[in-house]
Each structure stands twice: as structure tokens, then as C-alpha cells.
Amino acid sequence: MGALISNAMRTFKMLKTIITAAFATVSLVTVSLPAQAATGNDSVGCDAGYSISDNADSLITRLEAKGVAVSGVEDWSGCVRAYVTKADGTTGMVIYDPTYLTPVSQSNDANV
Predict the structure, then answer these.
(1) Is 94 in contact with 103 (CB distance < 8 Å)?
(2) If DSSP codes are grouped into helix, strand and coil, which group holds residue 24?
(3) Which H or E run contains 94?
(4) Which of 2, 5, 58, 81 could pair with 76 as two cysteines, CB 3.0-4.6 Å apart?
(5) Strands of 79-85's sheet, edge to edge?
(6) Taking the model in full, what pTM does it have?
(7) In angstroms, what CA-CA distances link 107 with 14, 102, 111?
(8) Taking all residues of the chain, what is their mean pLDDT, rounded to a whole number?
(9) 70 CB burial (10 A radius; 0-12, 13-18, 19+)
(10) SS3 (DSSP) at 78
């Protein structure tokens, strides 16, 4: 009789562990999906269609023609990330659409 109870307790502990692991897995997936969806090209809709790094000089020239003081550009998920200098002399980053060079997103400290 003692062996039967011992086997039942082991089975209960094993099921408890499996259920806990399953719950943890579902919780992690549920939390990570919205964060994953917010990254990449689809969240801002950029698609350069050309190499931003190969066209950096041209992009800087185009942004400067729009009155933006740019020190460099790079690809950011298909968008153009520009390092800009604001009127007060501080620097920041602004994300631009690669075709029209209109801001699509900018950090709080990069208001130009």
C-alpha cells in the first residue's frame, strides 16, 4: 500500500511540474509576441529598395537640402536612421522614410 501511495505522489509531482512548465511557456509566448510584432519593417513600413549604406552621401545631401543638419545615416530596418544636430547643438537620431525622407519616428531627444 505504501508503494502505491509513493507512486501516486511521484505522478502528482511530475504532473505538477509539467503543468507549471507549460504555463510558463505559454506566458512567455504571450508576452513576447507583442514585443516581437513591434520590431522590424512592418511596424514602421519602410522598404528602401536600395542600399542605404551605399547611398549615404546622397541621402545626407538630400536631408541637408531639407534643412536638416546630418552627421551620418545608416539602415534601420529598411528606414534611414539619421544622426542629426539640433539648433541648440545637441545631437539625436531621427528615423526617415527612405523614399521621401519624411520623419516616420523620432526619439524624444531628437526633436529637430
Answers:
(1) yes
(2) helix
(3) strand 91-96
(4) 81
(5) 70-76, 79-85, 91-96, 103-106
(6) 0.54
(7) 49, 15, 7
(8) 79
(9) buried
(10) coil
